[in-house]
Hints:
This protein is α/β, with parallel strands linked by helices. It has helices at about 10-20, 40-50, 60-70, 85-90, 95-115, 150-165, 200-210, 235-250, 275-285, 310-315, 320-335; strands spanning about 1-5, 25-30, 55, 75-80, 120-125, 170-180, 180, 215-220, 230, 235, 260-265, 270, 290-295. The strands form 4 sheets. It has a 7-stranded parallel beta sheet, with helices on both faces. The chain starts with a strand and ends with a helix. The model has no long low-confidence stretch (mean pLDDT about 95). Nicotinamide-adenine-dinucleotide binds near residues 10, 34, 81, 85 and 178. UDP-4-deoxy-4-formamido-beta-L-arabinopyranose binds near residues 127, 180 and 299.
Amino acid sequence: xxxxxxxxxxxxxxxxxxxxxxxxxxxxxxxxxxxxxxxxxxxxxxxxxxxxxxxxxxxxxxxxxxxxxxxxxxxxxxxxxxxxxxxxxxxxxxxxxxxxxxxxxxxxxxxxxxxxxxxxxxxxxxxxxxxxxxxxxxxxxxxxxxxxxxxxxxxxxxxxxxxxxxxxxxxxxxxxxxxxxxxxxxxxxxxxxxxxxxxxxxxxxxxxxxxxxxxxxxxxxxxxxxxxxxxxxxxxxxxxxxxxxxxxxxxxxxxxxxxxxxxxxxxxxxxxxxxxxxxxxxxxxxxxxxxxxxxxxxxxxxxxxxxxxxxxxxxxxxxxxxxxxxxxxxxxxxxxxxx
Length: 339
Ligand code: NAD
Ligand code: WQD
């Protein structure tokens, strides 16, 4: 079975390529290297023992996408990660986000229709829920007004899939709504490597511990939560990668209940920012330099998944702990920095 992974040299994509290879799939990766580097291919090969097929491809180039599918007529499934993902940047440059996250999806789906490709997994996000009315969040919770162009692209992308699945004779699609992915592969060969100052909590923590950032700012300790800091559902990227294999197999084995399905992919456990900081200190046995600062505009207070549908219907469950994830993130950071 040959699986196309778009954005397969990126953070979540690279871990998923390894998981697919470990399950016996042949993988073809396409990436434009806008947020990744070509040496990830070597790193994937050093973990799995197999180098995935690779083509540098700009998915915004419709004719290049068409040519790619003319050449690869034997694809059995697609996992579509490629997108731009920085919330702040999307506010500054919305058209980049609408083009990169939506045009690319449309071009891929046009090829799926043309070549009657059936199995399509899409990277969605818990960001579609906004500030939830109740916790934990089930897939039935309403999609709220997006607070950023990035978030809006995920909502519109899901609508595109719903609309197409309503009329398509061949397409079957699953949107996975990821909560907060963290951590790295245990080999420390692949992990998250943000360009510039990290916007996300865990890379900021590991870069602070590595001495690249002076101090972590904890954005607010006056929220209505137990310790006053915000709560999120942090999921180990290796568990998240495995969820893609399970979702793909659901489609390949025609176990899906409808041709468009949505699953939350989280742990079901909420952790506060301060809990993450203290867990990091514990697993790495060092003090982290942090201070409490004002709230970050746009942050939601508390978000964590109801995982019943993923556990019972999809047959996937997260296995690793937040401590496992923080330890692996730290091992990765040390390796990248030569510490
Ligand atoms: P990433 O930036 O590490 O990976 C995305 C990859 O896609 C990169 O290698 C990039 O070079 C490539 N890419 C981007 N635009 C492309 C284009 N036009 N053509 C070809 N390749 C292109 O991001 P990630 O964290 O691995 O996220 C993967 C997916 O998961 C994205 O769709 C993202 O929105 C979604 N997601 C991420 C998170 C998160 O916190 N990391 C949470 C929820 C959803
Ligand atoms: C987590 C918590 C911050 C940095 C974002 C996107 C979302 C999704 C995941 C893709 C929050 C706090 C952070 C720091 C801090 N991505 N924090 N100091 O905001 O839950 O979600 O990434 O779909 O769309 O919005 O993740 O890692 O930025 O923040 O105190 O330096 O850590 O306030 O409570 P978030 P995050």
